[in-house]
# Entry
Amino acid sequence: MVGLRDRLTIPVLAFGGILMAVMQTVVVPLLPDLPRLTGASAGAVSWMVTATLLSGAVLTPVLGRAGDMYGKRRVLLMALAMMTVGSLMCALTSDIRVLIVARALQGAAAAVVPLSISILRDELPPERTGSAVALMSSTVGIGAALGLPLAALIVQYANWHVMFWATTALGAAGLALAWWAVRESPVREPGRFDTVGALGLAAGLVCLLLGVSQGGQWGWGSPRILGLFAACVVIMSLWWVQQRRAERPLVDLKSAARPRVALPHFAALLTGFAFYGNSLVTAQLVQAPKESGYGLGLSIVATGLCLLPGGVTMLLFSPVSARISAARGPRVTLALGTAVIAFGYGIRILDSRHLWLIILGATVCATGTTLAYSALPTLILRAVPAGQTASANGVNVLMRTIGQAVCSAAVAAVLVHHTSLLGGAAVPTLHGYLLAFVMAGTVALVACAAALAIPTDPGARETGRPRGRTEAPRDEAFEGA
# Structure
C-alpha cells in the first residue's frame, strides 16, 4: 500500500521546481526601483540578476554530479536550504553587496529540477516516470508565470522586503516538505569528486556568461568582453583535456559526445533561447507606451497576467506531452514542441498590436515549450547510465541557461539597433520586436531539425519510458549510439 509520503513525493518535488522559477523572477519588478531603495547604481543592481544566473549555471552540473555520488536527496535539501537562506538574507538587508551574495545563494535552486528528475527516475515505476518528469519540466514555466504577477502585487502594495519574507516562508515550507516526503535514492556512482574539473567548469562558465550578460553594457568590442571570451576559450579547452584524462570526470565527455546525448543538449540550448524570447520580448512590448503606436502601456502586474495563461497551459499540457512521448517517443515530442514554438512566433509576427493575439501567441509558445522541455530530460534518461542521470540532466539544464543568456543578449542587441525617439527618449520600434520574433522562431526551427536528427534508441522501442528504476542502459545501446 502506497503511503502518504510516497503519494506526495511528486507534488513536493514539483513545488520545489516552481519555487526555483519563482526565486529567479521575483526580483524583476524591483529592478527599476532598486537603485533608489538601496542607494546603489543601476549597474550594481543588475548584478542581482547576473549573480543568480552565474551561480545557477555553475552549481547545476556540480550539484548534479554531487547528487549522483553522495545522494540526490541530500544535495536537493542542500540546494533548497541555500535558496531559502539567500531569500532570508534579502529580507533582512538593503545593502547591495549582501543582496548580490544572497541572490548568488538563490542560484543554487537551479539544481532542484535535474536532481528531482533523477530522483523520480530512480524511485518511480516506468509507467509513471514519463508523466512525472513532464510535470517536473513544466514547473520552470509555471513558476515564472506565477512569480512575476505575485511579486509585482506585493511590491506595489507592500514594502519590498515583504516579498522576500514571503519567498523565505515558501522556501522553508518546500525544504521541510522535501525532507519529509522525499526518500534517498539508492542509485549512486561512488568515486572521488572531481574538484579540479568543477573549478575549471566554474571559471569557464563565469567568463562566458559574464561576457554574454554584460556585453551590451560594457561594449561587445571592449577589452574586458573580448578578454572574457578569450579566457573562456582557453579555460574550456584545458578543462576538456582534463575531463578526458580524469578517472572520474565531473562530466562524462565520452557519453556527452554521443549523438543521443549531444543532440538533446544542443536542442536544449536552442530551446532555451526560443523559450526566453517569448517572455522577454512580450514583457517589453506590452509595457511600451501607447504613444509608440504599438505599445499598450500596461503595468508590470498586468504584464504578468498576460503571461499567466501560458503558465496554466504548461501545467495542463504536461500530461499530454507525456502521452505523446509514450506513444511516439520523446524525440517526436521535442520536434513537435519546437515546431509549435515557431508557430507561436508566427502568430506574433502577423499581429503584435492586439492584446488577445499577443496573449494567444505567447500561450502557443508556452505550449510548445512544455512539449519540448518535458521531452529533453526523458531523452537524457534513456541515453545515460542510471548513476549519471542527475549530472547529465544538470548539463542539459545548463545548456538551457546558456541559451537564455544568449537570447537576452541577442534581443537586447536587436532592440538597441532599432529604436526611435519618443519624448526625447529612445524606445524600440515595432520592427525591432518583429525581428526578435523572427530570430527566436528561426532558432526554434533549428531546434526542431536537431530533434529530428537524434538517433532512435537501438536497445528499446521508440517510447518515452526509461528502461527501469535503477537499471543502467545496456552497453550495446551505447555502442549503437
Remarks:
- The beta strands are 419-422, 425-428.
- Residues 460-481 have pLDDT under 50 and may be disordered.
- Residues 351 and 420 are 20 Å apart (CA to CA).
